[in-house]
């Protein structure tokens, strides 16, 4: 989970320009929808105030026209998609904003395109994420049917410990458990964490990392493995902060003398 800076683009201009540039069978439909789209854009801000937006009805023809904006290759659309990536912090530009584990290879529509086609090219609705998160989230609507996800622009992550990380050894194999702290149990953060199956995904990645460190100890000795932990800790805490899952993992490993205790 990594926050995203608010885009500086003038999104109303984007949509007006893209419709203007676009020459295809949907152009008349899109021109007819322009006022409605702009009204919906001004409603999107309600998400910032923890509000919810309900889908509105569009005909099949209108839905197709709106979806075609996303797949359009107009000059403005291209600039917009470049900026979705450029706005990322260069220190974590390849790390999925939803999970903080996988690499970015897709763009998620926070309010899914299937239900909110009018936001198909609204910059604030486009979140660069990994394929696994995108597949799990699918076209679920945030805030409906118990599903909910952080909006990484509006939901500012707390600058404090979010979860506990515990390491134990079962038959010499490290076992890792992350638990969200009780104070966050009723928050969107907790729902995001469980809906995207982050507990199991982060735990799996953490075990892999522990095994890497164990292998380093076996190959190069304990001092080298400990230095590697310190190097990784310094790098990750500088890039992602001390509350990021992997930084938290490494600090726990250091606290329990993982290198000395793993066999
Ligand atoms: Zn992800």
TrEMBL record:
Name of the featured protein: HNH endonuclease
Annotated organism of origin: Algoriphagus jejuensis
